[in-house]
Amino acid sequence: MFKVIQRSVGPASLSLLTFRVYASPKKDSPHKTSVKVNELSLYSVPEGQSKYLEEPRTPLEESISHLRRYCEPYTSWCQEMYSQTKPRMQSLVQWGLGSYEYLQNAPPGFFPRLRVIGFAGIVGLLLARGSKIKKLVYPPGFMGLAASLYYPQQAIVFVQVSGEKLYDWGLRGYIVVEDLWKNFQKPGNVKNSPGNK
């Protein structure tokens, strides 16, 4: 073994101080051969191949995995619906903010006109007692009539556009009914119908 002599400049508790270490062999010990670094047990390579073993899953992990697999279609559907409705909701919010700013800076006479149009809708609702069709037709009709008195240009444009759309819908409905009637009137269809067997 080697004899270690240590001299320090200050107390041992001060770790920042420098000190010198001198080593010398013992005089009475026989001379031994030096040991190589790779022969030390600290640096030796373990024998055999190492394997990675996966830990078994706990029941909690199994149940969470099952829950994730079960909920995956629903979460993907929700994400898809969110991505589809997000632009619509943003446009709705922008429309709401625009309407709010318009109402904050409304032109003079806007609120009295709005009151008259709303009152016309309430009158239409009161006159429509008893019939569901009247409840669907009278309030919007009275409100439209009152609005057309205050906004005649917009009412003319609205009537033209809605009249064209109603005509198109009526024409499509007529074509569908006509096709169904022709298919029903064919002699082969009447004989093969389930009621005539």
From TrEMBL:
InterPro entries: MIC26/MIC27, MIC26/MIC27_animal. Keywords: Membrane, Mitochondrion, Mitochondrion inner membrane, Transmembrane, Transmembrane helix. The keyword Transmembrane helix applies. Pfam families: ApoO. Coiled coil: none annotated. Component of the MICOS complex, a large protein complex of the mitochondrial inner membrane that plays crucial roles in the maintenance of crista junctions, inner membrane architecture, and formation of contact sites to the outer membrane. This is MICOS complex subunit.
